[in-house]
Amino acid sequence: MNLAGQRRSHPGGVTVRVIDYQVDGGETIRLLTDLLDPEAWPAGELAALYYERWEVESVGGLE
Predict the structure, then answer these.
(1) Are the C-beta atoms of residues 36 and 15 closer than 8 Å to each other?
(2) DSSP labels, the chain
(3) Which of 13, 18, 21, 36 is the most buried (most CB within 10 A)?
(4) Which of these, 52, 41, 53, 48, lies nearest to 17 by C-alpha position?
């Protein structure tokens, strides 16, 4: 992945893992992460955590 405008901080680009998933049978979400080891970071767990993060952020934070 080439980070346009950030070549000085990442001259060779960044290696990312792409995880595609669906929430409740809806639209496909594409998650890019630098957590590359699928055994240490299973796709299902990352997708669930990402979904939780956006649920929390959409209501304005933790209570």
Answers:
(1) yes
(2) ---TT-TTT-TT----EEEEEESTT-SEEEEEES---TTTS-HHHHHHHHHHHHHHHHTTS--
(3) 21
(4) 41
Q: 4 lies in which domain range?
A: 1-63
In 3D space, the residue among 33, 29, 52 whose CA is nearest the CA of residue 42 turns out to be 33
Per-residue confidence in pLDDT tens, the chain, 63 aa = 555 665 566 667 778 999 999 878 888 989 999 999 999 999 999 998 987 887 777 876 555
Report which residue type is found at 52: E
Q: Are 33 and 42 in contact (CB under 8 A)?
A: no
